[in-house]
Recover the amino acids of this structure.
């Protein structure tokens, strides 16, 4: 399965975008003291008050530094890349390996018209897993799934 795929085209373009995290509005959320609703709630768009595991929080920081420039704070998407809070990125459709491969090899434009995703260099294997954990917990908090089995990266 998984026939090779693109070999590091476009390797450097994205690296520049990577440090774009200084903006106001990023990291403003408060750690909801009562412990926000966690899984369930499922209102797409209201993706804010959810609990993240410690590992997902580490992933959130890595996501912020490496992915959010295109995939948005909270994985909510930007005009440069898609949100992951979408059925098409349900773990049953895009398994964890799709994330590993996206990071290492990039993604040719195919689902949307944002363009290609260049590879994201410089992340250790476990850092990518932390990012996946973050994305999965955000997806679950937004009602994309409820099965523990999909939290394998966490
Ligand atoms: C320069 C912008 C950019 C950056 C930075 C970026 N992405 Fe992407 N990513 C995209 C675009 C655009 C797509 C959509 C491609 C399509 O399907 O048309 C995408 C798609 C994906 C997909 C779907 C892959 C598939 O098989 O369809 C995954 C997973 C992904 N990105 C993960 C990540 C992760 C994790 C990071 C950070 C480590 C990241 N991306 C950083 C632009 C970016």
């Amino acid at each position: 399965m998984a026939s090779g795929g693109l070999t590091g085209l476009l390797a450097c373009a994205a690296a520049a975008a990577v440090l774009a995290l200084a903006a106001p509005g990023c990291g403003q959320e408060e750690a909801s003291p009562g412990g926000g609703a966690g899984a369930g709630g499922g209102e797409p768009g209201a993706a804010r008050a959810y609990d993240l595991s410690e590992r997902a929080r580490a992933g959130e920081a890595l996501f912020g530094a490496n992915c959010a420039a295109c995939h948005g704070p909270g994985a909510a998407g930007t005009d440069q890349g898609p949100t992951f809070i979408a059925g098409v990125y349900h773990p049953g459709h895009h398994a964890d390996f799709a994330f590993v491969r996206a990071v290492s090899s990039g993604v040719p434009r195919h689902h949307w018209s944002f363009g290609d995703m260049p590879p994201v260099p410089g992340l250790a294997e476990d850092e990518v897993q932390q990012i996946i954990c973050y994305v999965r917990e955000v997806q679950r908090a937004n009602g994309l799934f409820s099965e523990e089995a999909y939290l394998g990266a966490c």
Residues 14, 17, 66-67, 69-71, 80-82, 94, 98-99, 102-103, 107, 109-112, 114-115, 117-118, 120, 131 surround heme C (CB under 6 Å). The chain has four helices and no strands. The domain at 48-151 is CATH 1.10.760.10 (Cytochrome Bc1 Complex; Chain D, domain 2). The CA atoms of residues 70 and 81 lie 5 Å apart.
